């Protein structure tokens, strides 16, 4: 970008201090004392480049020596363009009196780049041309190290000053010379400021030709009108008395956070407003949505603080925005009644009873387990005895077989030698026969005993099974009672939170009967920054047959913040809320009824 030849400011060393001078001030001295007066003669050689001075301080961190920055000459050119300073021509080639590197008057690029780092809505491209993105309105994500960052913790009620935007910063540096700067507008045109600077009456003509041009409309503000029936606020410029057209106006949309009071600071000020002209029926107008980004004050006093403060979010308007959005989901606003939400509170007395039940059942279960252990021992003993009986039985059976075999042998032998051994043999046989009988009886006894033991084992096993199923029943009963108690405790917690919220200031309660759902919306200022509003919505389903009985589950909630720095706040609340509601599982199926929003 080329250098600025006409500088509005100079820096002058008076006594020990460097002081900024304006070309107008020097002009007044010259007019007062005369162009060749001693008064002017004393100071005419003491003007130095203000841009070089600032750069020196930025680079070296101290005040420069006079020889380190270039001299300026005051020029009175009021008849053709105005009064200003320019670089002094020391000799023909004016060598040795050049701007220092990085001086914002020599090359504005570096300065504009540094501005763009601090301000949203302005970026400098690789060619050094600053791009304005003010009219795109999308809230930047705070990536720039700017003064509007919302996380600052020192923002208190009293310090609600808002800072200026980039345009004012640039105007303050260059003053009238800013008209020489080139910008790229949202229409992708590279323009010099002087080419888009129009008085309000000139802007009326441009708008009347239905040209929706981006320009800076300038003039003095006559009046900030009250919000009209459509919800708009109009800010009217002072036009020349004989103009046949209605005054040019800035128009503030109903969704915008600004109230009349926030805009009064513009009255009787000489300003410029960056924006796009429109012609609306009989009015030429421009939309105003951001005081810091669009407005430039041309009449600021030296060190005057920013005339506008952070706008305050209107709770009533917020409530309307929330209610409108929820109404689309068939929610009905109701009066909050703290006492109403006390179903669990009333049933709280059952907790000790349930605890006792659980305790008793646990004891019963313990007893059953002991009994089971005992029965298992009894069964194991019977099984061991059964095994012993089998062994005994087998031994007896073997014995019987032996006796039978011996008897068989004896009888065949006896037949052959009957006569010889008759008496002795018959005795032996009789003894064997009686032995056989005894063994036979033993076997029968053992079989009987085995049968009884077997029955015992079967009975005991059945009994163990019975105990087991009884224990399972009791366990189920314990679990059920525990669940009832847990539900009661969880319900109590939910009710407690709910009652606390309902009692808070700026809490609004809604009910959706088709979804069995309660909604509480609480709006509050952030503790860390009063210009930030926190919106918290709680959702709780209730039983179909009793709307005052919550489902004992964790409260679902959505939370988001909105800062008064943002544009179109009430619209944003609507969008934000709607986006989040749509994704809630219990509202997903609901058919949203669209409603035309009327603002008051
Ligand atoms: Zn300079």
Please describe what this structure looks like.
Strands 17, 18, 19, 20, 21 and 22 form a six-stranded antiparallel beta sheet that branches. It contains 15 helices and 22 strands. It is elongated, with a radius of gyration of 50 Å. With 600 residues, it is of the alpha+beta class. Mean pLDDT is 87; it is low at 146-159 and 596-600. It folds into four domains: 9-105, no CATH class; 110-297, OB fold (Dihydrolipoamide Acetyltransferase, E2P) (Beta Barrel), CATH 2.40.50.140; 315-344 and 499-588, Protein Transport Mog1p, Chain A, CATH 3.40.1000; 346-485, Helix Hairpins. Keywords: Coiled coil. Residues 386-449 form a coiled coil. Residues 138-157 are annotated as: Disordered.
Question: What are the SSEs and their pairings?
Answer:
Elements: E1 9-14, E2 17-22, H1 23-33, H2 38-43, E3 47-49, H3 50-60, E4 72-77, E5 82-87, H4 108-118, E6 122-124, E7 130-132, H5 166-174, E8 182-184, E9 190-192, H6 193-196, E10 197-199, H7 200-208, E11 214-224, E12 233-237, E13 249-252, H8 260-263, E14 270-280, E15 283-287, H9 291-294, E16 295-297, H10 315-327, E17 332-334, H11 343-346, H12 350-416, H13 418-503, E18 507-512, E19 517-526, E20 529-543, E21 546-550, E22 556-563, H14 569-582, H15 585-588
Parallel strand pairs: 10-11, 13-15
Antiparallel strand pairs: 1-2, 1-3, 4-5, 6-7, 8-9, 11-12, 11-14, 12-13, 14-15, 14-16, 17-18, 18-19, 19-20, 20-21, 20-22
Helix pairs in contact: 10-14, 12-13
Residues 49, 51-52, 70, 99, 103, 105-106 line the site of zinc ion (ZN).
